[in-house]
Amino acid sequence: MTNSCEEDVAEEHGDESVSEEEDSFFHWEEESTLFSDLMDDNPYESDDGKLGALVDSLRAPFDEQGVQLKKEIAEAFVPTVNHVKARYEELHEQVDVPFGKGLFLFNKACKDMELAALKEQDELKSAHIASQKRIDELFKQLKEEYARRDQLWIDFEQELNELVEPVLETIQETPAKIERTIANFEKQSKTLEEEAKPVLDEKKLKELLKKLG
Questions:
Q1: In terms of pTM, does the model score above 0.70?
Q2: pLDDT (0 to 100) of residue 138
Q3: pLDDT tens across 146-160, in order?
Q4: Cα Rg of the chain, angstroms
Q5: 135 Cβ contact list (under 8 Å, min separation 6)
Q6: How many CA atoms lie within 13 A of 186 on its CB side?
Q7: SS3 68
Q8: For residues 190-201, average pLDDT
Q9: Alpha-carbon distance 50 to 64, whole Å?
């Protein structure tokens, strides 16, 4: 416990010394200050010596910062890797083999069921598409049959009218024809009667003369 406290104190002192060194090397607290130091008073004149000194003064704090970042990465990465390795070793040593096999078989059965369900879904989808196509074809045929039926009915009515209309006209004209026929018969009858009268009178006279003679 004491050693850990001493290490913590040493680390704190080390961090303080590093921060003091960084403060001594990197004495800029704002971007504008660094920018103004990097820039010359006259933008059209350059001082190579001053720029070189600034670059040299920046190299040390950046190197220190790089070392610190590498240290932090190592401190974070190594324990994580060791922890993962330890967990793998625990799994390798403490794992329940029958339970693992059961999980494997269960996973395999689930995948098989999933594949079977997907296959059945694809088959149902294909059957649905085929039945929908068949229904569309049947509806198309039904519409064609309805159109053919309507056309047959129209043709039937047209042919029926062509047959019935002359009969109706004949029936409508029949009474007039009958009346004309009767009138002709009556006229012919009268004519025959008038023509037959002289013949009858002559016959009667001959019979009377025969009786008298």
A1: no
A2: 92
A3: 999 999 999 998 888
A4: 65
A5: none
A6: 6
A7: helix
A8: 63
A9: 22
Secondary structure of 140-208 as H, E, C letters: HHHHHHHHHHHHHHHHHHHHHHHHHHHHHHHHHHHHHHHHHHHHHHHHHHHHHHHHHHHHHHHHHHHHH
Residue 49 banded pLDDT, cuts 50, 70, 90: low
* 176 token code pair: 């007039």
CA distance 139 to 135: 6
What was the pLDDT predicted at 44?
Answer: 45
188-201 burial, b for 16+ CB within 10 Å, e for fewer? Answer: eeeeeeeeeeeeee
**CA angle, residues 74, 78, 82, in degrees to nearest 5:** 175
Domain ranges in the chain are: 2-96
DSSP for 16-66?
Answer: HHHHHHHHHH----SHHHHHHHHS-SSTT---HHHHHHHHHHHHHHHHHHH
Place of tokens 């198309």: 140
Six-digit token string for 178: 């009958």
- Single-letter residue type at 20: E
- Mean of all residue pLDDT scores within the chain: 73
Whether the per-residue pLDDT at 121 is higher than 80: the answer is: yes
| Helix, strand or coil, per DSSP, at residue 45 | coil
> d(Cα 178, Cα 173) in Å, to the nearest integer?
9
